[in-house]
Specification:
Blueprint (H helix, E strand, L loop, with lengths): L1 E4 L5 E5 H24 L17 H15 L5 E6 L7 E6 L9 E7 L21 E3 L2 E3 L3 H21 L5 E7 L9 H8 L6 E6 L11 E6 L1 E10 L5 E2 H4 L6 H9 L21 H14 L2 H4 L14 H10 L2 E8 L10 E2 L2 E10 L5 H13 L8 E10 L2 E2 L5 H15 L4 E5 L4 H9 L4 E4 L15 E3 H23 L1
Parallel strand pairs: 5-8, 5-9, 9-19, 10-18
Antiparallel strand pairs: 1-2, 3-4, 4-8, 6-7, 7-20, 10-17, 11-15, 11-16, 12-14, 13-15
Helix pairs in contact: 1-2, 1-3, 1-13, 3-13, 7-9, 11-13
């Protein structure tokens, strides 16, 4: 069908059937083959690959994406790869407006760096991080959904508008290569690009999640993240456990004692109120709505062992826990040998990489220093040596309220391509760039969306990209870009 009038001063013709046909053809003939090739490149984010600046893997991924974008022949566009010697590369595509207003800009964002592959045996039989395979409409492999698809979706969305001769504002696509490390290189590039981005009206981020694959999901908030290395030393070297145990205390027991200062070991609740913020009523209402839509899928889509159960019996509380409350996890350790190499030794130290997710509204810099103070405070059991090194501290983010035109255009888009209403959802992870953009462009509207849905398992084994969802999301992005231009002209 054709959506001709949106009753909000947006008179334009958008042929959904024609758009769907182009998107399907483009994805099947061009995007999926290129993504398949991209998945085979082990271009880990700098935090996980000490040789990223010499092994050429980031450059290989960039070259692949650049070659594909150039092959699309977008009229009046300029592509540039920026690369400083000590920083990851960044792809810029500047597409000229087809309206009279040449300054107002839509900023589209994604990334192409990847999380580590994990051990091959953790992936299902026949799958692997760098062995792409399509099963039941899902493209398996590391980085396809997080976030390799984003550049292809953004450019294809603009191709839709070009084919139908639909006006659009200036579109400025940024694809970075350090997001999985907390985007340490992006502020440098954004400072250089600032003169080109003086009037950003809309930000479209394609690096987020979806509650299901049946409708368009809009991310309303993101949690922040504090990562720290907590180390406890008790001796200068390991000694025979039969000789020393009972005299020398275990560093594991000491570190366990320290962690109890942060987290209630029985409930998992974070103890100190500094790590909490007030949850707005609007977000509670949206969480209730998404909980009603998703039901038990909120928790039962995870790969539980038989008989295991979630933290709460309430789907609503589980969603609030995931999106608006602080949570704690140990994500790595040193000083503990693998079981195959475990001798009867009382170890000299234990080092844990700890991850504390914090809700929007909590200042990550202040909270991280408070965390360090809590863990290093006297009395330290047995006068052990304790050091808490803050590795990363990024604050969360809450979306500004949507303008009426944007809220309605998202609704039209979701109904047109999914035949269902759109839905809001907070997300428990971080996208550091959103906070940067919100500060730099306080009047901008934000559409944060993505394809990281149930069991897609970004960062884990068996990551997949839901292809049908990705195609429909591409159509929604095209419609939203068109709507923004018409709103500017109303």
């Amino acid at each position: 069908k054709k959506i001709k009038k949106m009753s909000i001063n947006l008179n334009f013709e958008f042929d959904v059937e024609k758009a769907t046909k182009l998107i399907d053809e483009k994805w099947e003939e061009s995007v999926v083959p290129c993504l398949t090739e991209y998945i085979q490149i082990p271009n880990q984010s700098p935090q996980f690959d000490p040789h990223w600046n010499t092994n050429g893997l980031q450059e290989k991924a960039v070259e692949l994406v650049v070659k594909w974008i150039n092959s699309q022949n977008i009229p009046n566009s300029k592509l540039e790869v920026m690369k400083e010697s000590d920083k990851t590369p960044i792809i810029i595509v500047d597409i000229e407006a087809t309206t009279e207003d040449k300054e107002t800009t839509i900023l589209l964002y994604g990334h192409l760096d990847k999380q580590p592959p994990l051990e091959p045996q953790l992936w299902k039989d026949g799958l692997g991080p760098y062995q792409p395979k399509i099963i039941d409409g899902k493209l398996y492999g590391r980085g396809g959904a997080d976030d390799g698809y984003s550049a292809f979706a953004a450019i294809t969305a603009i191709k839709v508008l070009k084919e139908q001769n639909i006006p659009h504002s200036r579109c400025f696509l940024i694809i970075e290569a350090s997001e999985e490390s907390g985007s340490p290189d992006l502020p440098f590039y954004m400072q250089k690009l600032a003169p080109k981005l003086t009037n950003v009206a809309l930000v479209i981020c394609l690096d987020s999640g979806c509650g299901n694959y049946e409708q368009f999901w809009l991310t309303s908030s993101l949690r922040g993240l504090i990562a720290a290395d907590l180390r406890v030393d008790i001796t200068t070297e390991g000694v025979h456990s039969g000789y020393a145990s009972g005299i020398i205390p275990s560093t594991f027991r000491i570190i366990r004692n320290l962690l109890n200062r942060v987290e209630d070991e029985q409930t998992g609740q974070i103890i100190d109120p500094i790590f909490y913020s007030t949850i707005p009523e609007t977000r509670k209402n949206q969480t209730q709505q998404s909980s009603n839509i998703l039901g038990d899928a909120i928790w039962n889509n995870f790969p539980w062992v038989q008989g295991a159960k979630p933290v709460s019996d309430s789907n609503f509380e589980c969603e609030l826990n995931r999106t608006w409350r602080p949570t704690f996890e140990i994500i790595g350790c040193d000083g503990i040998p693998a079981t195959t190499n475990a001798g009867n030794v009382l170890r000299s130290y234990t080092l844990l990489r700890i991850s504390l997710r914090i809700p929007p509204g909590v200042n990550a810099q202040i909270a991280s220093q408070h965390l360090k103070k809590i863990l290093e405070a006297d009395p330290i059991p047995y006068n052990a040596k304790v050091n808490c090194n803050i590795v990363k501290a990024s604050s969360g983010w809450e979306s500004p309220n949507l303008d009426l035109w944007l809220d309605r255009s998202i609704g039209f888009a979701s109904n047109a391509f999914f035949n269902k209403e759109h839905c809001f959802s907070g997300e428990g992870y971080s996208i550091p760039f959103m906070g940067m953009l919100a500060q730099a462009h306080p009047k901008a509207q934000f559409v944060i969306t993505g394809v990281l849905g149930p069991q897609s398992n970004a960062h884990g084994p068996n990551e997949f990209l839901h292809l049908n969802m990705s195609k429909k999301l591409t159509g929604c992005v095209a419609f939203i870009i068109a709507s923004q231009a018409k709103n500017q002209l109303k």
